[in-house]
Amino acid sequence: xxxxxxxxxxxxxxxxxxxxxxxxxxxxxxxxxxxxxxxxxxxxxxxxxxxxxxxxxxxxxxxxxxxxxxxxxxxxxxxxxxxxxxxxxxxxxxxxxxxxxxxxxxxxxxxxxxxxxxxxxxxxxxxxxxxxxxxxxxxxxxxxxxxxxxxxxxxxxxxxxxxxxxxxxxxxxxxxxxxxxxxxxxxxxxxxxxxxxxxxxxxxxxxxxxxxxxxxxxxxxxxxxxxxxxxxxxxxxxxxxxxxxxxxxxxxxxxxxxxxxxxxxxxxxxxxxxxxxxxxxxxxxxxxxxxxxxxxxxxxxxxxxxxxxxxxxxxxxxxxxxxxxxxxxxxxxxxxxxxxxxxxxxxxxxxxxxxxxxxxxxxxxxxxxxxxxxxxxxxxxxxxxxxxxxxxxxxxxxxxxxxxxxxxxxxxxxxxxxxxxxxxxxxxxxxxxxxxxxxxxxxxxxxxxxxxxxxxxxxxxxxxxxxxxxxxxxxxxxxxxxxxxxxxxxxxxxxxxxxxxxxxxxxxxxxxxxxxxxxxxxxxxxxxxxxxxxxxxxxxxxxxxxxxxxxxxxxxxxxxxxxxxxxxxxxxxxxxxxxxxxxxxxxxxxxxxxxxxxxxxxxxxxxxxxxxxxxxxxxxxxxxxxxxxxxxxxxxxxxxxxxxxxxxxxxxxxxxxxxxxxxxxxxxxxxxxxxxxxxxxxxxxxxxxxxxxxxxxxxxxxxxxxxxxxxxxxxxxxxxxxxxxxxxxxxxxx
Length: 734
Fold this sequence. Notes:
- This protein is of the alpha+beta class and 734 residues long.
- The chain has 3 domains: 2-238, no CATH class; 325-507, Nucleotidyltransferase, domain 5; 632-734, no CATH class.
- The strands form 7 sheets. Strands 16-15-14-17-18 form a 5-stranded mixed beta sheet. A 4-stranded antiparallel beta sheet has the order 7-8-4-9, with helices on both faces. It has a 4-stranded antiparallel beta sheet with strand order 10-11-12-13, with no helix packed on it.
- Helix 1 (62-70) packs across helix 8 (383-405) and helix 3 (144-152) crosses helix 4 (166-182).
- The radius of gyration is 43 Å and the shape is elongated.
């Protein structure tokens, strides 16, 4: 940083960053760090970080870096000293990184500008890692080994790499030192499981001998959290902070979830026991208190939940005693295979990946490489479907492992579900959508590899799908080294499959012959048989006469006007009953129609003859009863169309306005969803009219039809008479 003397230069935009110390006692180098708060808002209400972009992630994730190291015989770990402070920023941006500082208490507080990338600003990680990557690109020809490590094996400022022999590892270390020094960086805290690789390094540049290991922390803000490597024994261990629970201590959902969230296991090596904790977490979210409501964050757990958690929590300290071999490959391995196991239970599903290597003496070594799991959804799924989810999970896990260690391995997939094997072997289109979607994800990943059936008792993924306590996990050889038969020759592996279970039938896409059934009622089918409304009324009147059987003999041959009117009422009553059943039911009880009813705006009422009519303020007018309270019919019913066609023909092919005005005085068709039948029917009637004019030899149909639309059906006689005045009598027949 540089001291700023205020010379009164106008136009300089300056922002002061607050800062505070952070003490980290377990650090082997810098125990006191200064952290700058670039998220603190300035006087204008905007912080520096709000005006900056984060930048993309250009480094690989921690899982991939550690996976590669587990495949190498020799491991190298180092740290870039004060990486951010070795990278200068544009001088024009320095005023935005101003601070107030004094070196001694008796000094005056003065203004300084930070000239380098500052920890606490949003783009600082990207700027630092991008600078290292550019250095690797520029120096790739001179330092090829180091350039590849900088591109792939650096996590923030930690170098985590390795090699398979001492000579390559030594050359790699020398290239890393030389290349980073050429860019102004210095590597420190070197550590390796091979002492020969570190023989030329000064003692002050080595990891301190009294340290317990080199810690890889995912988040430096979380203390004593992460995976720890012990170079001397070349093993990995965990360093969880497990506080004892007092017998009288109240356990809440907040307390338990905070403990579960503190488990950091990037490789899933403790997946079999963390599954149990995540299942318990799901129970907490589903638990209810005595009032039937969800547990609050600070509400005490129920007795059953508290007892289960205390049993599990007492064993968590055992996880820190685990010592896991860092390297999973035998020395001078002649062949390496990858075996992926999957399984599921009603509570969770998961998969685990093992590395099987054989040395020149035919000695086989099997070690757990990585694992992953997911808790089953609360919505109940069949066990075969969960098994399929486990198979997809392990396939995707292998895809991630491939990105880290490369694809050049013989790979075998194992599951104890015969349903899953049959689903994967067939085309996705054979199965229902749920299964087809997951099979289509599995097949492209595993198409070059083989799926096998494994007995359930020798499936290590069974442990991660059910969850076990830490006490069971520590010495469980099935979890750490896989099934015993995996160390034997291939002909000793499980062969064949069990009988096909019924789950395959569940997933098969079934072809069904669908027959269309007309669900319209009797009245709809009865009315649809007629093309004339007049004929419909006359036939119905005869049917009602036969039903009554009370008509005098002298009147049996002729239908009266009263009978036709009663027939019309009978038809309309039945159509209304079929269409407006719920509305009629409520009206008969003296209630108003539902607020969701299509009749709610018309104040409907039931007349004395049982016909549903429109109410309103015309009750005391001098208009006829049918005009004051028109009957209601559904807009899209066959009866409504038949009535409209009847009046259209009687009005001599009347225009739309005349037709609706006439019909609305008698029976207004009720409009459903704002759309009635008149528009579509009018097009048909226009075709009807055009055909009639063509038959009569009338030209210019479009103009004649427009005239018809404007003046109504009475103008038809005038139009026709202009051409053939002697044929007017035919119009009535038409």
